[in-house]
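Narrative of accomplishments. A recurring question from our advisory board has been how the design workflow behaves on a single, concrete structure rather than in aggregate. To address it, we present the structure tokens for one chain from the evaluation set, followed by the sequence designed for it. No filtering or post-editing was applied between the two.
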């Protein structure tokens, strides 16, 4: 089996939040989710290269830079007085040309099955590879939920359609 670890940020497209927070714009929604995934990684003193599956306008350079900008804002808000100049490279690729992206896609799909269908068998098979799943909008009050190796996703996490 492949030696890897995986982290995910998920959010249900709650209509009122999607309109209010993201202007009902898929690109803004994607940038916000990616920024939540990135902001914890900005403390790394090395170059961070992200292989990202091409997804229409959501993965264009300007939108990826927006996600990085939001991540820097989140990082500095949590770490006042910190100055960071992240060295992040976005390597946008066609999923068919980069087989490793299929692994990430499968892991996202296994998490999505838990939330949308309450089905855990694919997630359970891969859960030792999944370090953390952050559910940004765990409920209507926007309480952030975190699932990790000690707090697994379960069938009770079923919600309905979401984006990963």
């Amino acid at each position: 089996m492949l030696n890897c670890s995986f982290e995910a940020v998920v959010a249900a497209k709650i209509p009122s939040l999607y309109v209010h927070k993201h202007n009902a714009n898929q690109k803004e929604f994607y940038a916000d989710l990616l920024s939540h995934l990135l902001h914890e990684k900005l403390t790394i003193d090395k170059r961070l290269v992200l292989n990202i599956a091409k997804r229409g306008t959501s993965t264009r350079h300007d939108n990826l830079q927006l996600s990085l900008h939001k991540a820097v804002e989140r990082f500095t808000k949590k770490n006042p007085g910190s100055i960071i100049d992240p060295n992040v490279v976005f390597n946008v690729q066609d999923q068919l040309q980069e087989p490793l992206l299929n692994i990430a896609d499968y892991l996202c799909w296994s998490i999505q099955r838990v939330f949308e269908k309450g089905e855990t068998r694919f997630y359970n098979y891969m859960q030792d590879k999944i370090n953390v799943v952050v559910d940004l909008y765990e409920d209507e009050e926007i309480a952030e939920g975190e699932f990790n190796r000690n707090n697994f996703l379960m069938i009770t996490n079923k919600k309905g359609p979401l984006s990963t």
